[in-house]
Design goal:
The chain has 4 helices and no strands. The protein is mainly alpha-helical. The longest helix has 45 residues, at 66-110. The relative contact order is 0.09.
Length: 111
């Protein structure tokens, strides 16, 4: 197992653990759909980082070749990391906006 496989596996395990922990503690905005997507995406990344020969055989069967497959896979990892970060930021903003609207509504109601 190469150092890249170990690092990628650790990253995937971290995100899987974080997804489970957030769902189990009922953190804000954590839904079953988000947990399922986390498992699907990071589970696949973990699987392909541990068993890269399956990705190679899949890429050869699709006619992509070995080097292109590696670049595409690394690109997907970064894209998914960015997407998850953006989703978390958007959910946090929605929560903050809801809190602001509630406090403003309560202040208007008290006046």
């Amino acid at each position: 197992m190469s150092i890249y496989q170990i690092i990628l596996s650790l990253i995937a395990v971290f995100f899987l653990y974080r997804g489970f922990a957030r769902f189990m503690t009922g953190l804000q905005g954590q839904t079953f759909f988000k947990l399922a997507m986390t498992i699907l995406i990071w589970g696949n990344i973990l699987f392909f980082s541990i068993f890269p020969q399956t990705a190679t055989s899949l890429s050869y069967s699709l006619g992509l070749g070995n080097n292109l497959n590696t670049l595409i896979f690394i690109g997907f990892v970064f894209v998914f990391m960015i997407i998850f970060k953006l989703l978390n930021l958007i959910e946090r903003l929605e929560h903050n906006i809801s809190d602001i609207v509630r406090t403003e509504a309560l202040e208007k109601l008290q006046k």
